[in-house]
Structures are given as structure tokens and as C-alpha cells.
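User: Can you help me understand a structure? I only have the sequence.
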Amino acid sequence: MANSAADVLIDVLHEWGVEVVFGLPGDGINGIMEALRKRQEGIRFIQVRHEESAAFMACGYAKFTGRLGVCLATSGPGGLHLLNGLYDANTKRICVGLLTY
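Assistant: Let's start by predicting it. Here is the structure, written out as C-alpha cells:
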């Protein structure tokens, strides 16, 4: 069976050393969620109650571990809710990856 774009994305994150993804599932990212589920022994998904929390958690994770922090949200309002946490990471010069469809 061929790999989907989501499978390739999660494989690349794993190659980059990403161990944790913070986010909130939604219809637009079902493919990514399935790819994460299939690779749950390599990358852990931590579900939050609001996308803004995911971005702040990714920022805090990157700040205190020195690793890439990754947050995940669906498109539209979900992606917009990540902005506060991403802005915080930018002002502190912390590397945070954003995944949204």
C-alpha cells in the first residue's frame, strides 16, 4: 500500500527527532491523526482542549527540552487559535512547528 502525504509528513517528523505532537483532532486532519496513530510508539500525541493550549505547550516543550516543539490543528479557526502560542515562540526565538491542513 502506498504512503499518503500524512504518512510521509509523520515519517519526516520522526526523522527530525520529534517525539511529541500537541494538538486537537478535527475533520481536516484525520489523515495526519491516522498516521500518528500508526506510529504511536515513535511519536506521542497529546490531545488538548483548545488549539491555543497546543501552541503554548509546544513552545514550553521546545523551550525546556531544546527540541522541536510541534502543534497540530485543523484549518480555519483551529489554525488561527494557534497564533498566540506561535507568536510567543517567535518572540522568544524558540523553534515550533505548525501542522494544519
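Now, to help you interpret it: DSSP finds five helices and four strands in the chain. The helical segments are 5-15, 30-38, 51-65, 77-80, 83-91. Let me know which part you'd like to focus on.
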